[in-house]
Specification:
- The relative contact order is 0.14.
- The N and C termini lie far apart (85 Å).
- The chain has two domains: 178 residues, 3-Layer(aba) Sandwich (Rossmann fold), CATH 3.40.50; 110 residues, Nitrogenase molybdenum iron protein domain (Rossmann fold).
- It is of the alpha/beta class.
Length: 331
């Protein structure tokens, strides 16, 4: 009797362990912190995503450490923008992420895509650009079963190439959160309602953030500024705060003498108030273009290097950008 009772206890414990294992939330990997922060908001109260890109690194060129490669290999879901943004992930995804649900966010329905601007100087409120919000039929899962190489040369932007900094649009962030909730709910039905509720709460929280940002930027609206590279168009259009130009076409490639001269001339012509560097790159070229001008220097960080991963990370990123702009352009 005792042996039977013991065996029964072991069986029940094993069964309970099996249920617990079956109900473990999915292992989620995000390519960069802004995407991870949106995922953290959707997964709030369930689990925490893993972010691959280390603080201070650039997604345009990065090499995975062994522990990060292992995270990809163990992932159930991988969220990334796409090959035009995280070129460092294209081959690892094919090699290590084959068993995971790979979600290429730039290809989702409801995402508005904006093209890169041509040249060093931008025209404010360029309404001629095409907007791509993916009205065609796109699935939320983008596997990599094809054999072609997704790598792209980031030394130049081909005509019509889309800007991958999609997370800097609050509207896109809402669409990303909805897609994450749907994907996670399919894999983890136990927490599906929580994911959906979290995505709705996240979307609602952005209303107050957008209002606060409008208030922050209002005193400096219309004052010209130059950005390090063309990474902020989604933010600029969302908050009616257009940049006057960019130093770099691609942040990894130093601008030529002609481009530097063009930016310096624009600073003088428009009485540019601020030129922004980025923490992922050396600011020497910013110091060069500022020579002989009265413009101030500031820092904009599209990746939120100093922002903690968590449900409040994405709103903190947007607010940080707005405050950086306002502080540098202010009197």
């Amino acid at each position: 009797m005792r042996r039977s009772a013991l065996l029964g206890t072991v069986f029940l414990a094993s069964a309970a362990l099996g249920v617990a294992e079956a109900e473990q939330p999915p292992a989620v990997v995000a390519s960069i912190l802004p995407i991870g922060s949106i995922a953290a908001a959707v997964m709030d109260g369930v689990a925490q995503p893993t972010v691959l890109l280390e603080p201070g690194a650039s997604p345009h060129a990065y090499s995975l450490r062994p522990s990060q490669a292992q995270a990809l290999n163990d992932a159930d879901v991988i969220f990334w923008v796409g090959p035009d943004m995280e070129a460092f992930l294209t081959r690892p995804l094919d090699a290590l992420g084959g068993d995971a649900r790979q979600v290429e966010l730039a290809s989702l329905d409801g995402i508005e895509l904006l093209p890169f601007r041509e040249g060093a100087l931008f025209e404010a409120h360029d309404d001629d650009h095409p907007h791509d919000d993916h009205d065609d039929d796109h699935g939320h899962d983008h596997g990599h079963d094809d054999d072609h190489d997704h790598g792209h040369d980031h030394d130049d932007h081909a005509d019509g190439e889309m800007d991958g900094h999609i997370w800097l649009s609050p509207a896109n962030a809402r669409a990303i959160a909805d897609a994450m909730a749907a994907t996670l709910g399919e894999i983890d039905a136990v927490n599906a309602e929580r994911y959906t509720a979290n995505a709705e709460r996240f979307a609602g929280s952005l209303d107050a953030v957008e209002s606060e940002i409008a208030t922050i930027l209002e005193p400096v609206r219309g004052r010209p500024f130059i950005v390090f590279h063309d990474a902020y168009r989604y933010f600029e259009e969302a908050f009616d705060m257009p940049a006057a130009g960019a130093i770099h076409l691609s942040p990894e490639v130093p601008p030529g003498a002609a481009r530097v001269a063009e930016i310096q001339a624009r600073i003088g012509e428009l009485d540019v108030a601020c030129v922004f560097a980025e923490p992922q790159f050396q600011p020497r070229v910013v110091q060069t273009v500022l020579e002989g001008s009265k413009a101030e220097s500031g820092v904009l960080d599209p990746l939120g290097t100093e922002i903690a991963l968590g449900p409040d990370g994405y709103p903190a990123l947007l607010l940080s950008l707005a405050r950086s702009v306002a502080d540098c352009l202010g009197d």
